Amino acid sequence: MSDLYFIADKEEAWIPAKRAGGEDTAKGPVHHMVTLSGSKKTLPEKEFQACETVSQNELDVIMPNLIDLESFSEGIILHQCRARYQKDLIYTFVGTILVAVNPFRALPIYTDEYINRHRSQARGSESPDPHVFAVAALALEHLASDQASQSVLISGESGAGKTETTKKILEYLASVAGKDSRRTSTVNVAQQILQSNPILESFGNAKTGRNNNSSRFGKWMELNFTPEAKIKGCRIVNYLLEKSRVVWQIPNERNYHVFYMMINDDKLKSKLKLGAASQYHYLNQSGCEVVKGRNDAEEHADMIRAMNDLEFKDETQSDIFAGLAGILNLGNISYDELSNTSGEDQVQIANKDYLLQACSHLGLDKTDVDKALCFRRMETREGVIQIPLNVKQAQDLRDAMAKEIYRLIFDFLVRRVNETIFNGPGESGLSIGVLDIFGFELFEVNSFEQLCINYANEKLQYFFNAVIFEGEMQMYRAEGIDCEQITFQDNQPCLDLIEAKGGILSKLDEELVVPNGSDAKFVQKLHSSFDKHTFYRTSLKNKQDFVVKHFAGEVTYRSDDFMEKNRDSLAEPLTEALEKSTVKLVRELFEFSKNDTGHTGSGGSPSKGSLKKPTIGKKFKSNLDTLMEALNSTAPHFIRCVKSNSKQAPKVFESPLCLRQLKYAGLFEAIRIRKSGYAYRFNHDYFVRKYYVCTSKSVDGNKAYCTAIMEDLQAKSDGGITSDDWAVGNSKVFIKTRKPRLLIEEIRNAAISHHVVVLQSFFRMGIAKIRTFAAKYEAIRKKKEALKKAREEEEARKAEEEAKKAEREAREAEEKAKREAEERERAEEVREEKEKAAKLNGAVSRIQGICRIFHAKRAAKVMRTIRRLHEAIHARECEGLQRAIKAVKREATYSRKVANLMDHAREVLNEVYEELDLKAEIEEAIEKESVEMLKMVLTKAAERKMTGAPEAVYASQLLEKILNRDDAKERLNMLTYTGNANAVLENADELEEAIRQAVALGVDQDVVSHAEKYYEKVQTLLPIRNKMRVAVELASRKMVLEGLEERREFCKVHGDDFCKEEMTAMKNMLRMFSFEVQLKGGETITPPKADSGESNIQGNDGGFDDIRLPKWCFEQLQTVQNAEDAKTRDFEIRQMERRLGSHEKMREVRRVYKWVCQYSTWRHPDHEAMIEAKYLPGGSFSLEDAEDANVLVSQNKHRILMEREEKKKQEERRIKEAGLQSGSATRDRSVRKQATFRQTGKKGGSSGYGQGQIKRGTHKKKAPVPTAEKQLNQMMKDYASFYDTHRIPLDWCP
Predict the structure, then answer these.
(1) Which of 31, 164, 1101, 1289 is an S-S bond match for 22, by CB 3.0 to 4.6 Å?
(2) Annotated binding site
(3) Of 118, 136, 140, which is closest to residue 128 (Cα–Cα)?
(4) Where is this region: Actin-binding (predicted)?
(5) pLDDT tens per residue, range 410-438
(6) Helix (H) or strand (E) holding 338
(7) What is the pLDDT of residues 809-860, one digit of tens each?
C-alpha cells in the first residue's frame, strides 16, 4: 500500500505527504500527515479519503509522457509539470495533448538540430519527445501517410504563449514543407506566411496587464498542401477583434501596437503631422505609452518589410496609415454643450482643428461629418428631422466611428494577406489548420466580449471531450475490452443555453428590434426564461447581472452595454459620408462592408426590403459553426499553453495559477474520462515483474500469466476484488478503481513478507549447521597439516646442517689467510698517519690564534653599531636616523642582525617623514577651515593612529563646530524660505527651537534675523488656526460659528488663502448638524414607565437639535445586536417595539441609532465625559468654559516647556541629528486611528455602541444606501480626512 498522499496546500496547490498516524476525536476520526519538508497537517476522515495516492517512484521519475504514469490525479500532473519546468523542460505530453509552460525567457531548443530530430522521430517508430516541433511533425507526417487533413488547436489565457507557439508551428512547417514550393516570385509562400505575423501582430496585438504582446483576436490559419506534402498556400480567418480597445484602455495597458509604432517613425510622423502619443486621447488614458523590452521603431520597420514582401502597394500603405492618423484625430474631438432657440440641449464641436485633420486624412467632407457627429437623423411621416445629441451621445457616436474604421482596416489586412498567400485548396484537398484562439476568461467585470470568448471555449471543450472520449474507446477496442459504461461530461445544455433558438444570443438579437429595447429588459427576459435552467442562475448581488455555469466554473456577466456591443452598425449619415470618401481605401472599405453578406438585397444594392445587417453575436456564432465543421473534418492535435507565473518572470512556477489553467484547459476532464473506465493500466511485462510473487502458478505467455495472477489476487482478497474490477487486455492489465488497486498492493506486501520469512528460515538453518560441524572439521584439518609440516621441517633441518658444516670449514681457512695479510697492511698505515698528524696539529694551532683575534674585533664593532641604531630609532629624529643608517651600511653586509635593524630604521624614518607631512596638512586644513580637507586629514590621522595628537584633536573639534553651524543654517532656510503658509504654521514649534540653536552656534546674523521676523508673523496666525481645528474636533456649533467669524475678519486684512481646509471642514460640520435635524423621531421618544427617571431626547439649543437617544435606548439596541442567535434577537426587537408603542416608532429609533453609531459618535449620551477625559486631565473645568481654543492648549504650557528643556539636556547630539519633522508627527496615534476608521467606514466611531455593531456585522451585506445618506457619506469622508491630517497635538502650546 502506498505511504504517500497528495494533500491540498495554499502555496503549492498539492503536495505529497505521509500519514504519521490518526486518532478519534469528538468530531470524528482525524489523520496526522507529515509533508516531505517536515511540516505537519491534520485532515478529517472525509478529506483523507478524498486524497489521491502516489508512489515515491512517480515523484522521483520525470516522465516525458504522463500517460505512462501508474495513476492520474491533479497532484501528480502538477508535480510532473513543475519538476520538468524547473529543469527547463517546458513541454510535457499527456497522451497526445501537449502542455507548454511559458518560460518567459529564450531557450536554445528551436534550432535546425531540433527540427531534424523531431522530423526523424515522427517518421520512425521511436516515441517523440515532448516539443511543439513534435506536434507539427506528427501532423505533417499523418497528413502525408494517412492522406487526411490535420488541425492543431492552441489555447490558453493571455500571456500563456499562444502566439509564440503558433509561430513555432509555422516555422517548422515552413522549414520542412516549404523549401520546394513551386512559386515564381522571389519569396516563397512559406516565407510569406511567416511574414504575415508581423502585420497581424502590429494591428491585432496590444499590451495588457497580463501580457506585453497579447493577441486581441482569434485566428484560424489553414495551410493547404500539394500531393507531395508541400505548402501550396494559406488562408487566414479572424474572430472577434477587440474593438473597444481602440477608444479605451484600463490603467497600465496600451492601444494596439501599430499606433505607437507609427508615431515612432519620424518620417511617417512628419508626413501625417502627428504629435507624441501623450497628445492623443485614445493613447494617453492608461498612462502607459512604452513597453519594456519592445522597440516600436524597429517593430515598425519589420512590419513595413513584411508588407513589401506580401506585395502591398505604396498607395495602400499610405492610405492605411492615413486612416490610423484619422482615428487618432477623431479621438481628440471634444464637444461644448449649449441650448438652441427652442431651449433644447445640443452640442457643437469645440476643437474643429482636429475635425479638419481627421477629415483630411480620411478624405471626408468636413460639413457632413460635423453635422453627423452632432445630430441624429429620424424619418417621420412629415419627412426627415435632425435631433440634436447630448455630449455623451455625441462622444459615443465619435467612438463608434473610430472603432468601425479600425475594424474594417483590420479585416482588409486579413483579406489582403489572403490574396497573396492563398492559392486555392489545391488538388489534394489536404490542409493543416492552426487555431490560435483566446482561452477561458473570468474577470471582476465580464461583458459581451467575455460571453463570446467563453462560448467559443465551450464549443472547443465539447469537441475536445468528444475527441478524448473517442481515443479512449479506440484504446479499449484495440485491447479487446468491453467498456460501454464510460461517459463524459456533456456541456451541450450550456451550449444550447447560449446559442440555441430562444437562447441568450437569440434573445439579445430580439431585444435590438423590439421597441424601447434595453439591457435591463434583456436581463429580465433571461431571468424569466432560464430561472430553472441547470446552467443559469440570477446574480445575488445585482439583479442586472446573470450567471452562466461554464465547464471551467461560474461566470457573472454584467449586462451593461450588451446591446450596443452586439449591434454592428454605424449611423447612416456617417456611413454615407465615409462611402463618399476621396481616399480610395476608405471608400472601398465601406463599400465592401455594405455589400457583405446580410447587408444588401438580391440585387446587390441597399434597399428597404433588404436583410438587416447581422449582429456581432450572430456573426460569431456563424463563424464558430464553420470552424467546428472544419475541425470535425480533420484529425486534431491539442496544445494547451500555460502561464507559469503572473509576474512574467523566468524560473518562477506559481502552482495554484498553473493548476487553474490546467483545469480550464480541460485536462482533468480528460483524466475523469479515463477514470470513468479503467483508471489504472500496467504493461504486461511490468505487471508480471511486480506481482509474480502473488501466485504459485507458472503459465506461458504474458497475457495468460497476468490473468492467472489476477485470479489468485481476486481469490485472496476475501471478496474485496471482483471480476468487474479488472480486465486483462492484449498488452495491458486494467484496474478500475482505487480500492482494488490498494488491496492488490496489500496482498503483494503480504506475499513478499511470507517469502521473506521462508527465506530467513532456510538461511538460519544453514547457519546453524555450519556452526555445529565447523569446529570438528577444522581440528582434523589442522592435525594433518601439523604432521606433514613436522616431517618437512625435520628433513630440511638435516640437509641444512650438513651444508653449513662444509661451508664453515672452507670459510675458516680463507679467513685465516686474509687476517694475516690485513695485520701487515694495518701496521704500515698506522705509522704513516702518526707522521701526518704531527705536522697538521702545528699548522692548526697557528691559524686558530689568528681567527680568534679577528672575530673579537668584528663582534665589538657590530655591538657598537646596533646600540647606535637603537638610540636613533628611539629618538625618531630625521638627522640622527639618516646618519646612523649611513654609518652602518658596511657592517650590514656581513651581519644579518645589523641589516634587519637598518631596514627597520629606514621604515621608522619614512614614518617620521609621513607624520610631519600629515601635521602640515592638518595645520593647513585648520587654517582654511575647509570641511572636505578636515574630513580627509582626520581620516588619515585615524589610519595612522594619530587621533590623540593635539593638531588632530583641534581639527576634530573645529569640523564638528562647522558642520553643526551649517546644519543649523540649512534648517532655518528650509523652515523659513517656503511659500506654503500652512506648512509654516505646522512647523512653528520647530522654527522657534531652530532659532535658538542657530544663535548658540553662531549662524550669520542676517539669516537669524530673517527667521525671527518670520516667526513673529507666524505667532499671529497660530491661535486663530488652532481654535478652528479644536472647534471641528469638539463638534461645537458655537465654536465653529465663532471660528468662521474670526477667520472672516482676519481675511479682510490678510487675504482669503488663510486656513481654507479648516474652513471647509467647519462648513461640512455645519451641514452635518443640519442633516441631523432632518432625522425624525429624535425629540418624541420617551422612556417606558420603568425608566421614567431618564431624561428624554432634547436639543442642545435653539440653533440645532442633537439626535441623542436616552441610555435605555442604546442599551436595549445594543442587547439586540449582541444576541447570539436570530430567535433571541427577534424576541428583543418585539419587546422593545411593544415598549415604544408602534412599529413606525421602532423603525425611527433604529434609524437614529444607526446614524449615531456610524456618523455622529460624539453625540452619544457620554460625549461630554469623553471629551473632558480626553482634553481636560483631572476635570478642572468643563467644555462650556472653554470658549476659546487656546484655553485647552494653554493649561499645560508651563509643564510642556519644562519637559522640552529636560529632553534637550539629555540629548547630547540633538543638533547633529536634528532634521525637519512635520508638526503633525506628535499626533496621537490612537486618535488618528479612530479618525481613519470613521473615514473608511470599516469600524464604528469612538463609542462602544458603534464598535460592537460593526464587529458583529462584518459578514452581513449592507442595505442599499439612500441618496441623502450617500451625500452625507461624502461629507463625512471629507471631514474625517481633514480631521485626521489637521488634528492639534495634545502637547501643543503657542
Answers:
(1) 31
(2) 156-163
(3) 118
(4) 624-646
(5) 999 999 999 988 877 767 788 999 998 87
(6) strand 335-339
(7) 888 888 888 888 888 888 888 888 888 888 888 788 778 778 878 777 778 8
Give backbone dihedrals phi and psi of 235, rounded to 5 degrees, phi first.
-125, 130
CA distance 1079 to 1076: 6
| Alpha-carbon distances, residue 1139 vs 203, 678, 1096, 1126, 1157 (angstroms) | 73, 71, 15, 20, 22
3-state secondary structure of 767: helix
Grid cell in block for residue 358: 481627421
User: For residue 384, which phi and psi values (nearest 5 degrees)?
Assistant: -90, 130
How far is residue 132's CA from residue 118's CA, in Å, rounded to a whole number? 9
DSSP 700-734: SSHHHHHHHHHHHHHHHTTTSS-GGGEEE-SSEEE
Grid cell in block for residue 890: 658596511
Whether the CB-CB separation of 968 and 998 falls below 8 Å is answered with: yes
Q: Would you tell me how many other CB atoms lie within 10 Å of the CB of residue 620?
A: 22
Rounded to 10 deg, the angle between the 584-595 and 391-421 helix axes is 90
The conformation of residue 65, written as its DSSP 8-state character, comes to: B
3-state secondary structure 1005-1029: HHHHHHHHHHHHHHHHHHHHHHHHH
Query: Which residue, among 1027, 1064, 1065, 1069, has the nearest Cα to 1046 in the 3D structure?
Result: 1027
The secondary structure element, H or E, covering residue 640 is strand 635-643
The secondary structure of 121-168, three-state, reads HHHCCCCCCCCHHHHHHHHHHHHHHHCCCEEEEEECCCCCCHHHHHHH
Using CA atoms, how far apart are residues 47 and 276, in angstroms rounded to an integer? 59
- 1083 touches 1105 (CB < 8 A): yes
Distance of CA 63 to the CA centre of its chain: 29
Query: Is the distance from CB of 212 to CB of 291 less than 8 angstroms?
Result: yes
What grid cell was written down for 707?
Answer: 490473468
Triad 787, 791, 796: Cα angle to 5°: 145
238: helix, strand or coil? strand
Please, are residues 1050 and 1059 in contact by the beta-carbon 8 Å criterion? no
Give the residues across from 635 on adjacent strands: 150
Spans in the chain with pLDDT lower than 50: 1, 181-186, 597-611, 1080-1107, 1161-1165, 1167-1201, 1204, 1212-1269, 1271-1272, 1279, 1282-1294
Q: Taking Cα atoms as reference points, which of 702, 694, 703 lies closest to residue 721?
A: 694
919-923: long-range pairs with CB below 8 Å, 24+: 919/949, 919/951, 922/951, 922/952, 922/955, 923/951
Residue among 167, 512, 565 at smallest CA distance from 396: 565
pTM of the model: 0.56
Q: Are 1075 and 1272 in contact (CB under 8 A)?
A: yes
Task: Report how far residue 616's alpha carbon sits from residue 506's, in angstroms, rounded to the nearest whole number.
Answer: 12
